[in-house]
Here is the input.
Amino acid sequence: MAADVIDLILQDHREIERLFDQLDRHPARRPLLVPILSALLIAHDRAEEEEIYPVAREAGGTDEITRSQKEHLRAEDLLVKLELADAEDSAFDTVLTELADMVTAHFREEERQVLPAMRERLGEGQMEALAKAFLSSRDKHFGERPRDRRLSDLQQQARNAGLVGFSDLAKNELADLLRKLAGS
Ligand SMILES: [Fe+2]
Here is the structure.
């Protein structure tokens, strides 16, 4: 039987929460764990942005997806700060707490609103196709760095966030616009 797309997303959510817990409880492991967290969170978020959010938006979740996309952008900026922070410095703990709280609240919202609405509105065939598309996008984006986005990734983020009229913007202009939108 094909994997269920919602199960795949939930497995990533639980693994990311586990990494946050490990990062909090084992400071000595931080240099090893930060790149793992970063790679997983970026690949997961990009795959959602590319395959899940457009479908969820289309299925009626406009406001939720606008908000969810902005949260991805904020998480990405905090991830950059976490990567730059010294793991032994108190600034690391501050950024880690902010990122973990934000991402955990974001997961709860997705699990309470976005994913159940998708299950309700999409047929079995669409859900199966989505599972394959999610895995393949996640695979493609694995290893990418936060804020390291192609123009097409930025345009997808802009569409998910409900922006219009950005098609003429250059890559750096669109990246700046999205950073302002995220409020970071
Ligand atoms: Fe998400």
The CA atoms of residues 151 and 171 lie 5 Å apart. The helical segments are 5-25, 30-58, 62-84, 90-121, 124-141, 151-160, 171-182. The chain is about 80% helix and 0% strand.
